[in-house]
Amino acid sequence: MSERIERLKQVSQCGDVDTLYVLIQEDAYLLDHIDRVPFFDTPLHIAACNGHIPFVMEMARLKPSFARKPNLEGFSPIHLALQYKQTEMVSRLLQVNGDLVRIKGREGITPLHYAIAVDDQLDLLAEFLSVCPNSIEDVTTRNETVLHITLKCDKLEAFKFLVEWIRQKRSKNSIFWERKILNWKNEKGNTVLHIAISKNQPEAVRLLLKSGVDINAKNLEGHTAGDILAEQIEVENNNEIRVMLLHAGALSANSSLPNYNYSHYLHSIVSSLEESLIRCSREWRMISEDKRNALLVVTTLLIAVTYDGVLNPPGGIWQEDSSKHGIRKSHAMKPNLSFNKNDTLPNKIAGTPIGLRLLPFWLFLASNSVYVFIRNNSSSHSI
């Protein structure tokens, strides 16, 4: 058996599919024997390192479980393909099974995490997230997200790409990712903002502050981002980060709650409105084409009815001018807008709604106008 396995390893290094089947003919359970071993350098591992794509595709078809099996070092075939910079091999493996992006190797490191550590190819990150968007949620045994890893490895461009991807991604999980992952704490309680400040990355700090991170989150030592910055003395770019945190309202751990001024209040309103518009836009793009067409038809009908309510208000409009005593008045007379039914001023002016002086009419007009405003604004943001 050991002799056959050694021959199989040699065949895998050469990528010889024909000889592989010769060995299978000699022992039909040869691959099953390997599959029963929990940690093993399978033929798929070996061929992936050497870039033998046809052999890897054949082996993945015969034994799909090999693609998820860790070797003695705790790495799957796709981890090894990344390590040996076999980019095309990685893409072909993902064609077989996109969920391989989420397979965890040693210390819980996924291929998405590993791609940051061993390389800095944004195209590869984009491919991973396109194939399996939910892989952005995976964390290592140190409770680190891919964002923590990018900053630890000083991969600023990759970090900016990932944050912008989270902010612009139009899916049902985007709001969750923006609120949770950007504020996720590692095993020491540090968020990516803590890491960005400790690594002295002003660009990363600026991007995170724009993304609505919790600037006053505390780590397990009770330190906020402001505390970490205060511990850094005479560090280059320190003042730039200090100014950004100050404007964002950052506090030290023992500070009282901030007294929000008008600028903070306006900023919070703008952030809330922006988030609402993004959420509506995402939801609009997630519905099917048939539902979208149906909603457009219903919306058109509602808008038509709403505008018709303005042109033809309840009770109609006066067709000609008249006063209380039946005397015709000029069209230039100002209508009485009072709600008091006992008023003696003339109100029968041509083109004026009959119910103009009644409170229910004004409630109708206000609600009708508000609906028109909301529909016009929501339509402009959705299309």
TrEMBL record:
Pfam families recorded: Ank_2, PGG
Matches recorded under SUPFAM superfamilies: Ankyrin repeat
Position of the signal peptide: none
Domain of life where this protein originates: Eukaryota
Keyword vocabulary terms for this entry: ANK repeat
Residue ranges occupied by any PGG domain in the UniProt entry: 289-329
Coiled-coil region(s): none
Repeat positions for ANK: 73-100, 188-220
InterPro entries: Ankyrin_rpt (IPR002110), Ankyrin_rpt-contain_sf (IPR036770), PGG_dom (IPR026961)
Record's protein name: PGG domain-containing protein
